[in-house]
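User: These chains co-purify. Model them together.
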Amino acid sequence: MSALVQERPTAQPAAVIVSEPRRRPSRRTILLLSAAAVWILGFLVLNGTATLALPASELTDLHRSLNQFNAWVGANRADNPLFLYVFTPLRSAVDAVANLFTTTFAATATGLRLPEIGWLGTVGLLTWIALAVGNLRVALLTAAVFVFFGIQGLFVEATYTFALVLTSVLLTLLLGIPLGILAGIYTRVAKVITPVLDFMQTLPTFVYLAPLALVFLIGPASAVIATVIYAAPPVIRLTAHGIRRIPDNTREASDSLGTTGLQRLLTLQLPMARRTIVMGINQGTMAALSMVTIAALIAAPGLGQTVIRALQSLDVGTAVNAGLSIVLLAIVLDRVTTAASRRAEPGAARSRRLGRRTRNIILGVALAVVLAMVQLSRTMLWAAAFPADLNVGPQIVQAVNAASHWLQSNLSLFTVSLREGVTGAILNPFQSLLTDTPFYILVMVFAIVAYALGGWKLAALTTACLAVIIFLGLWSDSMVTLAGTLVATAVVMVLGIVFGVAMGRSDRVDQLMRPLLDAGQTMPSFVYLVPFLGLFGATRFTAIIAGIIYAAPVAIKITADGISGISPTVVESAVASGSTPWQVITKVQLPMARQSLALAANQGLIYVLAMVVVGALVGAGGLGYDVVAGFVQSSIFGKGLAAGLAIVFLGIMMDRMTQAAAAAPARSIPSKTTA
Amino acid sequence: MKKAERLIKRTLPAMAGAAAAALFLAGCGGASVNQTAAAAGASGTPCGTVNVAMNAWVGYTADAAVYSYVAKNKLGCTVVQKDLNEQVSWQGFASGEVDVIMENWGHADLTKQYITDQKVAVDAGPTGNEGHIGWYVPPWMAEKYPDITDGKNLNKYASLFTTSESGGKGQVLDGDPAFVTNDEALVKNLNLDYKVVFAGSEAALIQSFRTAQQNKTPLLGYFYEPQWFLSEVPLKKVNLPAWTEGCDSNPETVACDYPTYKLNKVISKKLDDSGSAAAKLAKGFTWTNEDQNSVATDIQGGMTPEAAAKKWVDAHQSAVDKWLS
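Assistant: Joint model of the two components:
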């Protein structure tokens, strides 16, 4: 989920922050309390009625008609003009590009299945590219990591993944940069495009795999198309942002020289936005990597397949080995594109140690060496396929498996009782509070809360979202998902506050934590599921843990930024007036960082929701399960599609509600009694 | 103008390099070790590439491993294995991503869609294995509660099977959501006080049954034969209302046990038409449940699928020769 780069309306800073004098409860509090009262009463009195539960094997008419769509596509693929002239050629074109890169780096379909450029050539070439666009440090990192793939015994898989990421990123840029430029220049385009991007980013990755596979069939082409859909939003947003950010007076200065629109774009807007655009490429690349891994489910070759196989055979060792490769690839892609964006900074050329001429000579010499390596890797077997005797993959797998068996057998008492305790004491009661209350009571409760947070408009939006979910026939499953999501978000917020405050208050903790958080964010969600699956089994608890790990880094970072952003004089004056650290935190820092906390909750929730479907692979029920099952069982295809949409509407609703909570209270409800 | 000049200056070396590399590769394109080494190694008629779908249960892995081993080492084929879900694999016939499914469990709807209607796949005959799906309990339960193996008594025992995941009802533990299953519908249509919970994979299912037998904890779950694990823990089948022709045609109203599956192989029309030896091998391949279980047990015991396949093939040369003749 790259919601990180979403542009959110910046909330107004609250006017009155510290120690508002206590007076009678505000109208908002009264509304929230009455909502809670209605809910509890409804739950106690009408328990179990009108829950709209739909057994897993049952379909509504809507689901059946969506199923028909599946059959229709199958029957009309050969002669429908839409397929004949749009989808099939598009698929072949994307396939051709993907094929070009996979045969170059990973494997050809003939002979010994060696790639066009063997491992030695690949390492050399990629290192040279890293040197050319970045610097020596990232070049060495690239070389080391790609050689390490070979040592892990995963060179072919890693290069498959790399080749697909490369294909996807190129196509993403081809699509995203022009769209971003248009959105940056014309406000009207931006207005049309932004809701589409919002929708694309709220849609969990899994949801569009099934329809895409239906239209474009399984294989690398569908995988690349899915990845482009996932990776394009950050590229479009950041490109547009980079262009819009250019100060007006700079633009006017250029206009006064009589430049035309195209000249202005080429000589002013693009060069000035270059750094932001390259940042977009960085974000897009990271998104592409995580999607390519998941696309293994629709026959994308590479590391994702290894992880899926490990997930299905509970092979922690293999999963960790392949997961390590994915993380390392993520680090290389991140560092190289970051180095490239530094190089793109205006004025970076002046501070370089080497002159351009020296640099070009070095690059030229290096290129000659690289070409020799490429030639070797095409003619010598040892340079084409990574030497098998250097492969220590099986040893890594065995060692990790031994460790995990030990952990599982020694910790099982602890893990099982933790799981049962949390499920029995928190998750189950909360879930039944949502699933066993009549739907009309809950709609009312949500509407009141929405009104309290954001007025009539938000209440109307919330009711509309819930109406769509009811129409989709998935109310009960949505409530199961909501329960898990809210529990996970609550834990994420606790973690966010604890670690965020620690980081915001101490630079040393910050330095210690940040690399960990970065790693947590770059690691594709799939990877860390396997160890937890081993520890906790396939249950909702495991799925919630997966969501927490995915969402906590964002929440922690936002909270930390909020805390450290508080003016030091305020904190110092609180300390000077004799406050204990605890008082400083609870009375000054947390209240002043209230908006950051609300933003952290918003992002945490969206991130958790993005993991709902992936969580279904390790035991979560609800909508995520419907999506996964719809993907693998054609008889419930339609239900899966409907569940995907339900997740989106649930996401939009929760996003708007938390955003409203993040905004200043005075703004949200115009009321005469308070304020 | 100056800017453009600088841009050209900066990108010139890179462009020159790329051009040089392209020329360089084009110049020695024919001499690739990939083709020459392969040409030297192959003998007889070329076999080409076969894409084998790998579904996620060990019995399937055993079939596919033996097929791949023979295709690769006896026929000189290039075998590409793809880890795919059961039903998703069928889509691969249409896209060209999949050539062979080695163990197919029924799937009348997919057979109609891809073999009869779209004509992109061909039935390659039975594997010789007979498949059974059903609900099973660990042997200790069948001893302690003898009447539990009659499906009519399941509601009596529902309270034994409650877990934190089953919402107060008894739990029926299923495997991978991708496996052939009617269990959700069975629970509803047989009015059972149960809830289906998914373990997520064959490995997790086996793990659960093993623990249940070891610790004498109650467990009711989906399971199937042929299956190596049944020789480690002989699970007892629970009898649901017997299967009759057509009783399971509507997945929403099914209220009977699973049929006996004549497991078969399915290959792509493309492979079949090519006349490749790989197609002939796929059609000829047949073995018994014991054969499959022996290979599956080896794989489960830590052998790589390839090594386990080699072991079986070496011991059954004559059977393999019969497939190829």
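The beta strands of chain B are 49-54, 78-83, 100-104, 121-137, 170-174, 194-198, 220-225, 236-238, 260-268.
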